[in-house]
TrEMBL record:
It comes from the Bacteria. This is SpoIIE family protein phosphatase. PROSITE patterns: PPM_2 (PS51746). Residues 10-198 form the PPM-type phosphatase domain.
Amino acid sequence: MIKYESNKHVHALAYQQQKAGKTLCGDSFIMVTTDEYFMCAVSDGLGSGERAFESSSAISGVVSEYHHETIDVLLDRCNHVLKDKRGATVTLFKVDFLKKQFTYSSVGNVRFVLYSPSGTYIYPLPVLGYMSGKPQRYKVNTYSYEKGSKFIVHTDGLKVAAIKSLLKDFYSIEEISNHLEIFTHAKDDDLTYIVGQLF
């Protein structure tokens, strides 16, 4: 499955496929774009199949309803909705177009990298573990970004050694996604990635 989200400030492409033999993907994602901000969440439910989908899709449901709120508030809402579910790893980030900043937080193994035209990378380390409704500590960071910056956020189903160089070496998000296609054939895990560019 491929989905696009775009306006004059952001152009993003999401790709997802489920583990071989499963009818449901245990990963979920959501992208919301307004005139003021771009909100993105990627979650990986523990395990695979129906119960993993139940957990990860609960995250997308929360972000769909409350995307206007801050990352701090969304983190608490996401953690709360996972009570009595299997649990999920979660990455949230929200881009403020006016301030040219994005706020990021992650629990678990959903990775994020941003590459700036000036040659710098931002790849914040997530908090270890996963969300399950239990009391959880978060690390929330806000960064400035340059016009033309490219980013990728992906679950652990995508295994690419030189992911940072992809953002540097390819001009468009479509080119990046086309290159990643060779890594999507090994279907031993659910796989989700979102590549985007900020303007």
